[in-house]
Write a structure and sequence with these properties.
By secondary structure, the chain is α/β, with parallel strands linked by helices. The protein has eleven helices and eight strands. It holds the Pfam family OMPdecase.
């Protein structure tokens, strides 16, 4: 299982600093949506230049113009680009077309999707390299939601998946047992007093 850091910072300087701290311990460096909105895709280029040996994940959360937006991000240096699972099939298919042209990958973020298992299978059939079982803050606050729901949906989907939203030292072993391809840690790393040590501990917890 790969470890992905979600850098939900909003300046390029902060992103470069955080990436430098955690890069030795992670496989994938994610530029969060707020960072890309604040700094533009130059941030993707800068992170890829600083860490060419890492997979760079541009969390665009594309909802329309899939081929165009994905092409722009891949040209900037991204290895993975996200499209929302609530987007139309043609948007996802267009993004996959751009990914194929660049030899890169599309990840479909299932935030806000009610039936994550069904949609995960659908978008994988369209060419997504994996799906992200992701619950936003509002969804996490809804009655009946538990982190286990994401793990159960991922396991039931029987397709490659990542898990985002609650990955930490306590939960990461459960993420691996569920069969996740990638564990995405955000606040557990960037919110720690020592992000490098936090990333190293998460890496060590992966068997």
């Amino acid at each position: 299982m790969k470890l992905q850091v979600a850098m939900d910072v909003i300046t390029l300087d902060a992103a470069l600093t955080l990436a430098a701290q955690v890069a030795p311990h992670v496989d994938i460096i994610e530029l969060g949506t707020p960072l890309i909105k604040a700094e533009g895709l130059r941030a993707v280029t800068a992170i890829k230049k600083a860490h060419p040996d890492k997979l760079v994940f541009a969390d665009l959360k594309t909802m329309d113009a899939g081929e165009l937006e994905a092409d722009i991000a891949f040209t900037a240096g991204a290895d993975y680009v996200t499209v929302l699972g609530t987007a139309g099939d043609s948007t996802i298919i267009g993004a996959v077309k751009a990914a194929t042209a660049h030899g890169k990958g599309i990840v479909v973020d299932l935030i806000g999707v009610a039936d994550k298992v069904t949609r995960a299978r659908e978008v994988t059939a369209m060419g997504a390299v994996f799906v992200e079982m992701h619950a936003g803050l509002d969804e996490q606050a809804e009655p009946g939601f538990t982190f286990q729901t994401l793990l159960d949906d991922g396991e039931a989907s029987k397709v490659p998946f990542s898990v985002a939203g609650g990955v930490n030292l306590t939960s990461i072993k459960g993420v691996q047992r569920a069969g996740a391809t990638v564990a995405v840690a955000g606040g557990a790393i960037y919110g720690a007093a020592d992000p490098a040590a936090a990333a190293e501990e998460l890496r060590a917890a992966i068997i």
